[in-house]
Specification:
Shape: globular
Structural class: mainly alpha
Number of strands: 0
Largest sheet: none
Length: about 190
């Protein structure tokens, strides 16, 4: 499966600045950016849209997993974020928690943009420019989470505090990113 140009476009930057996470992650999804599978599933306004994207997409990109799997991944991510915010000291109503989760989502998208840009600028990270590794994604999630006092273990790829991240990537990485880049020269 060939990887298209994964650079961040002016349109994607505009979607981010407009706080349109659904549009931003849909654009990334259509470029086959692996993390966009969960990003789009998290922010899609109607799950029928997610179902259509999965059904019309390449089954290898979706790791031969269907709608139920990816919707579950998104739902578990939302619950995990809410728990992480609470663990970090945030207390709010349901609506306030939802709004805070969106703020976290915007910060994650901002960090994704930054890391993809750096991946292009560095020029020799991994095998494919703009395709991030599990470690790069974990690092930018940790960076985003830190701004909200969310412990790094609340990122789904690094939830076991006593296990080195590299071991977790080997154990669980395929659950959400079977086609991420390597972290060579990162």
């Amino acid at each position: 499966m060939s990887t298209p140009n994964l650079s961040i476009t002016p349109q994607e930057r505009a979607l981010f600045l407009a706080e349109d996470l659904e549009g931003f992650w849909l654009s990334r999804l259509r470029k086959m950016d692996p993390v966009a599978r969960i990003g789009y599933a998290l922010w899609v306004s109607n799950t029928e849209k997610l179902k259509r994207e999965i059904e019309k997409g390449n089954p290898l990109f979706w790791n031969n997993k269907g709608f139920v799997y990816w919707e579950f991944m998104a739902r578990s991510t939302v619950v995990n974020l809410a728990a992480g915010l609470e663990k970090g000291g945030f207390r709010g109503t349901f609506l306030e928690t939802r709004n805070m989760i969106k703020r976290v989502g915007l910060e994650v998208a901002k960090q994704h943009i930054k890391y993809v840009h750096h991946d292009y600028q560095a020029g020799n990270i991994g095998k494919v420019k703009g395709l991030l590794s599990l470690k790069q994604m974990a690092d930018y999630h940790h960076e985003a989470f830190r701004k909200f006092n969310i412990p790094p273990s609340f990122y789904g790829g690094t939830w076991l505090d006593s296990v080195p991240n590299e071991a977790e990537f080997k154990l669980y990485g395929d659950l959400y990113c079977h086609d991420c880049d390597s972290d060579t020269n990162y």
